[in-house]
Design goal:
This protein is α+β, with helices and mostly antiparallel strands and about 120 residues long. It is built from four helices and three strands, in the order H-E-H-E-E-H-H. A hairpin with a 5-residue loop joins strand 2 and strand 3. It is rod-shaped, with a radius of gyration of 26 Å.
Length: about 120
């Protein structure tokens, strides 16, 4: 995956996913997040497009007032993707060498038996 996250980012993303379940529109008021938009980990999640700001109101001049965040679909499915990558890693790094080792051992044992049968 291109987006490498650190533990605190994953914790915040997981928490935001849970909180967003409580809102029909899945928009989380910024008051629910410690330090609001100044939260360092929230900023990193926004930079990675896992979370984005939402404007629910406008001021008297018509400018958007950003007072909520919403977890993107990429953020909602982030942990599913992570699990798939772990599975792929385990197969590639553990299962494949075990299978190759077993096949090599069996081939060696067969060739040894074949040589003994030819000699003896």
């Amino acid at each position: 995956m291109d987006d490498v996250t650190i533990k605190n980012e994953r914790k915040l993303l997981k928490r935001l996913n849970k909180i967003s379940d409580h809102y029909a529109d899945r928009m989380i008021p910024i008051s629910q997040i410690e330090n609001g938009f100044d939260n360092y980990y929230l900023q990193r999640l926004m930079n990675k497009q896992l979370v984005f700001r939402e404007a629910t109101n406008t001021d008297s001049e018509g400018n958007a007032i950003y007072d909520s965040v919403r977890v993107s679909s990429k953020g909602l499915h982030f942990f599913e993707i992570d699990k798939e990558e772990i599975k792929r890693f385990l197969i590639r790094s553990i299962a494949t060498p075990i299978v190759v080792s077993a096949a090599t051992t069996l081939l060696t044992m067969f060739l040894t038996w074949l040589v003994k049968m030819a000699i003896g």
